[in-house]
Amino acid sequence: MIATARLRLIPATAAHFEALAESEARLAAALGVTAAEEWLEFDAARAAMAQAGEFLAEHPEAARWWTYWFVHAADARLIGLGGFKGAPAEGVVEIGYALAPAYRAQGLASEAAEGMIAFARAHAVERILAHTLPEANRSTAVLERLGFACEGAVVDPEDGVIWRWSLARG
Question: SS3 of 147, please?
């Protein structure tokens, strides 16, 4: 688990993904919390959960470099998800995050990202990547606040044109 001042980032397990396949409420119950409304609001994220679960079932050793459930500690509420897009390769890892609408604009995305950055740096990661839509938005503002630099547009085979952001160990 990655703990921050207000959040617990709980590494997903195969059992968590099985619970989520039944319902969001079942996953929340498995985590011992309630779920915030629209914590998993993006259709793409919903679709990706089945694949993420399959990957983890085949590669249980990847758990700490995969999906994390974001739990607001004071509210005991599942408010989002994020994590890493695989184990570090050549000292580089990618992070991502998403929060329920009711928990945005409170510094929680920054806090979750800071927790993931600290975890990565504690494991000798030299560079952290993130990708966003190719437009200024809340996520780009979070990355800028955390010291990420926009490296420019890249083409992702699934998402099309996106912006790549990078944070080097400093």
Answer: coil
Q: Does residue 42 register a pLDDT over 90?
A: no
Query: What pTM was computed for the model?
Result: 0.95
Distance between CA atoms of residues 71 and 142, nearest Å: 19
CA 59 to chain centre: 18
| Residue pointed to by tokens 């437009």 | 135
How far, in Å, CA of 65 to CA of 60, rounded? 10
Q: Measuring CA to CA, how many Å separate 170 from each of 28, 35, 46, 116, 126? A: 37, 36, 35, 16, 9
* Helices marked H in the chain: 14-22, 24-31, 43-58, 108-122, 138-145
Q: Are 167 and 146 in contact (CB under 8 A)?
A: yes
Beta-strand pair 7-11/67-72: antiparallel
Residue type (1 letter), 116: M
- Average pLDDT (45-74) is 93
